[in-house]
Amino acid sequence: MALPRSSGILLHPSSLPGPFGIGDIGPYAHVFVDFLNAAGQSLWQLLPLGPTGYGDSPYQCLSAFAGNPLLISPERLVASGWLEAADIANYGVFDGAGVDFEHVIPAKFALLRKAFDRFEKIASPTQRDRLERFTRARLHRGWLADWSLFMALKRHHDGRCWADWPAALRDRNDSAIAEARRALASEIRFEEFLQHVFFAQWADLKAHARQNGIALVGDVPIFVAYDSADVWANRDLFQIDDQGRPIAIAGVPPDFFSATGQLWGNPLYDWKRHDETRYAWWVARLRMALTTVDHVRLDHFRGFEAFWRVPAGSATAEHGEWVKGPGAALFDALRQALGQLPLIAEDLGVITPEVEALRDRFGLPGMKILQFAFADDASNAFLPHNYAENSVVYTGTHDNDTTAGWFAAAAEPERRKLATYLGLLDFDPAWALIRLAQASVASGAIVPFQDVLSVGAEGRMNLPGRASGNWSWRFGAERITVDLADRLAALARTYGRIPEGD
């Protein structure tokens, strides 16, 4: 489903300002929606919203369905009555602008536990009934019970991977699972409470976005984390052996980012089994995502046509093989169950004619990255004059350096080609690419907020292959200004990305 001509910003909620060491979906998220509206933007793209595990990566979530409790707003918990003002006034001090996950996680969860305890003590029958209705809702029944038990068991086993739990729990023996549900009933209810709160706060934010003409663009990674509720509860859908260990793992071959490829480590799907179920798990996953956001960026789209299979135990991703994926069968099943598919295909990397044909068969817009455009000649597919209208152009993504950082590190010929293409000699490279994106024929134009702020390499969100030190960038509230909104709005209006009359 093609996007209308529009523009937007890529920013994860964790990067928003606020006093709690990590951005969240509370007051500053609503302020950012107001900023987007004033700036003539109509898209807010986010990274995956799931609960993060080891490495704090939103692309290695503990669940493909659950929301991340770290993004819950403490101020909104006060407004709901589950925290008192004094609880957040004495929250603590976090040095620096970035997210210090090591200290933020225990501090935030201490607040969340306090909110749950207060809920248990003072919630009215009506409020308790809302929680029960949330747990029984059709949208949540298929994942919430497994997720809540998974997290309760994980906490009970000191955070160990599910494959290292006692065999009866690892293999989901009926009597062992029933006993665990009895023994861990309070912890299970805590997890249900967190999800109820997350999705209630998210619904408020989504409604505010809709009122301001802002469509939310989510992100669904093709693979799920090995240590996740999804794999533990659905082992038959993955290439997993009898001991719960992956038979093969996901990655990509050597590319622009890594000479030895990227070894992601995610378990691979048993696509034959998915086909036998008419892709019911994927239908449920996309239904959940499209209830949460308006459009979905489908990460590593090329893996649906063919994926890079690496034997388990490999040290790098160099010695894998391409294996055919589900192809059109998956998207036919999704379209039959869900109707129109408002997806953006992340079609970067080793793209073949078969991948392009799959994308085009379902009318999905692909992605164009301006930072990739100036390394060779005029036939480069990432140069704006080569775009198809049904595409979304980005200055860069979460995996790229910021534009200022990219330009500072670029070779002189690459810089010279950019200057020649623009007809400029002295310019701000970030805003130069923002203007190029806005001016392009691509229907969508999305820009990382770091580029709007002209932040250097210190603002990079992720360096693929780096195990730690990612996902922590934040900015101060003083950076959201009327002048900045006016500057963005002027570009959006100049290049026809604001609807007539607005």
Brief digest:
The protein is an alpha/beta fold and about 500 residues long.
Give me the secondary-structure topology.
Blueprint: E1 6-10, H1 27-38, E2 43-45, H2 74-80, H3 85-89, H4 101-122, H5 125-136, H6 138-141, H7 144-156, H8 167-170, H9 174-183, H10 185-211, E3 215-220, H11 229-233, E4 248-252, E5 262-267, H12 271-276, H13 280-292, E6 295-298, H14 302-305, E7 306-311, E8 321-324, H15 328-338, E9 343-345, H16 353-361, E10 366-369, E11 391-394, H17 403-409, H18 412-422, H19 429-439, E12 444-448, H20 449-452, H21 482-494
Parallel strand pairs: 1-2, 1-12, 2-3, 3-6, 6-9, 10-11, 11-12
Antiparallel strand pairs: 4-5, 4-7, 7-8
Helix pairs in contact: 1-21, 7-10, 13-15
Helical residue percent band: 40-55%
Number of strands: 12
Strand content: 5-15%
Oligomer: single chain
Let me know the largest β-sheet.
8 strands, parallel
Can you tell me the overall shape? globular
Low-confidence runs of at least 5 consecutive residues: none
**For the terminal residues, how far apart are their CA atoms?**
24 Å
The chain-level mean pLDDT equals: 94
Helical/strand content category? alpha/beta
Count, helices: 21
- Identify the strand order in the major beta sheet: 9-6-3-2-1-12-11-10
Q: What's the gyration radius in Å?
A: 23 Å
